[in-house]
Amino acid sequence: MEIAMSQTNNPSALNYSDASLQDEENISLSHILHIFWLRRHLFIAVFVFVVISGGIILFQLTPKFTTETKILVGTDKAKVVDVEAVLSGNLSTDSAVKSETEVLTSKGLAKKIITKLNLLRLEEFNPELKEKGFFADLGPSNWLSDDLKESLGLAGDKEILTKEEQQERLVASATNIYLGKLKAAPVRGSQVISITFESTDPKLAAQIANTHAESYIIGQLEAKFEATQKATSWLNEQLAGLRAKVESSEKAVEMYRNQYGLSKGKDESGLVGEQLSEINSQLIIAKAEKAEKAARLAQVNQLLRSGTDIETASEVLSSTLIQSLREQEAELARKVSEMSVELGAKHPKLIRINAEILDLRGKIKSEITKIAAGLKNELTIASTREASLQSSLSASESKSGAHRKEEVQLRALEREANANRVLFETFLNRFKETSSTQGMEEADARVISAAEVPVTPSFPKKNMMLMLIAVLASIIGTAVIFIIEMLHPGLRTPEEIERFLGIPAIALLPTIDKKTDPIAYVLEKPHSSLSESLSSLRVSLMLSDPDKAVKSIMVTSSIPSEGKSTLVLCLGRSAAISGQKVIVIDADFRRPTIEKKLNVSEKSKGLTDLIMSHDGKYTDFIFKDEQSELYLMPKGQADYVNPVDIFSSHKMELLLQELKERFDLIVIDTPPVMAVTDARVLASLVDKCIYVVAWDKTPRQVVKAGLEQLLKASPNVAGIVLQQVNLKEYSSYSYGESGYYYNYSKYGQYYTN
């Protein structure tokens, strides 16, 4: 802090400040808790007031009941016929479910329910039926007559509405109210939509929720029935036109055929085309047969020319005659082989058999030659047939070329006729399907959970709201405590002083009965709490500077009426009782009070007279207290004296040095720091300064400002003395060590008050 930093020559104050800063976080929680404990009665009062007020309002609220209906959309069902173009709609997607949710909250559906249940007869939906409150007629405008309102321009333009317009406005207003009570939302991860409705009447809430769901499903059925009717009517109209188109296009095809002589073949193609196809097929077969026969003939001729393996030719092998001759030849060859060993090669039998073999071979060759001649004839016939078919093909192609353009146009007409026929059949089938579904419409949604009459209201939830009121009451009570603490100006504990000012509080002087003079009380009750506090203050002053004895003390404060003059006399008498030789100097020239309290004449000479004299001795300007060994130097009678000039004079410095030699303790009463500069000038001449603060009274900012000014003049500030402390209250305020030390309830038995 700035104050702590300015105390460069006051190590004790700096040490206290550092310690307070280090412990600030540690005591913050206990400080807060202590504030709560201190203000507990205020907190309880605020808490009870808020809870009772909230409870009264809560129990006066009109209860509202909420009920819920659930519908499943996009249900799968068996389809008799497939009429997707007319009736189908996939309600299984999230977007479709959201779309149906919008339908459920539409104004059109809401108006249907309002009309169906005649909700305009209820005050809940028709504000005009509500009775005006007591305060409604207390407005200033209601006290004036219509003529006076008109003359003052307060009448306004009255809008004239017809009954229909009034009804429309009522319905529009009721619709907005209705939709404000209605909620529809899809259930996540399903195709279910939850419909909730809120009303002051539980039975009405259930009735409206169920009616709303039923009307939605009925609306789906009506929409599908209307769509089916429209589709059937439209298809019927289209069929009439398509039927005429089919008849017209087929008639055009037949007329074109007859016009150009384009007969229709078996496969609906032209007769010329059919002939071309047939000739082509026969020509291909003829060419194949010719090639086959030519190949067979070439093989046989090749074998005849070579003479080798002629018997292996296919034409030869297939001849039964040749096969018989070959068998005979083989039998004779076997005999020759057997007889050549027994009879010899020149035996007549062998010669005769060999002759037979040669004869058989000649017959075989002759037969093969006949086969070759037959193949040649067949080849000639095949060639002739091929040539004939080729000629027929050429003739047909010539004929087909003459009708090519007409056939192209014919095919175009036929395609158009076929397309019209297919389209007509498609529409006819769709018409039959649509017609078959009339009266069989099914809604894409169904109610899976009907609304029931609620037993308990959904608003207000009294238990939860009471808890919220209690929480709110706690917050308000806490806020009130903190606001009061923040607005509280005074300082109350040494901990606050050290934390806010950075210097220690060296003493707390308790307050006594207002009728009792504290200066006399010190003498009458030497063992009282006040006397003990003064003794503690003297000890603190002795220990404040370990290097030298503290003999001169200046007492000041921020503002008047903080008890500094009383402290000066009490401290002086307390020290005098203990055996010290003490003198008190009244340096508050503007408001001197010391001499009054000690019954010294105001006309007595004093400090100003001594300083202004040339050869005066201090002993001529002091007085002895009648009730103690205390000495007093009053302000004096010298006029037109500037206190600053006196306090800054060399003679004042010499006076204090002389008094230190003659007295054990010098206590000087000075004006408040914030009022004049006297105390700041005198502070540099004394050993220590005491700064008096009225307990729980002087604003802390004022104390801080005054202390800053004093520290700039002199760093010898011993500390703060809290004056006029109520020990009973203080013991509850304080939370640190001082709280225990000054706890009146614990240590009061040691005092004699």
What does this structure look like?
This protein is α/β, with parallel strands linked by helices and 753 residues long. The chain has 3 domains: 2-18 and 489-746, Rossmann fold (3-Layer(aba) Sandwich), CATH 3.40.50.300; 62-262 and 404-459, Bacterial polysaccharide co-polymerase-like (2-Layer Sandwich); 283-402, no CATH class. It has 28 helices and 12 strands. The strands form 2 sheets. The protein has an 8-stranded mixed beta sheet with strand order 5-12-11-6-10-7-9-8, with helices on both faces. Strands 2-3-1-4 form a 4-stranded antiparallel beta sheet. Helix 2 (11-38) crosses helix 16. The chain is elongated, with a radius of gyration of 67 Å. The model is unreliable at 1-27 and 77-89 (pLDDT under 50).
Question: Main traits of this protein?
Answer:
3 domains; disordered N terminus; elongated; Bacterial polysaccharide co-polymerase-like; four-stranded antiparallel sheet; eight-stranded mixed sheet; Rossmann fold; 753 residues; 12 strands; alpha/beta; 28 helices
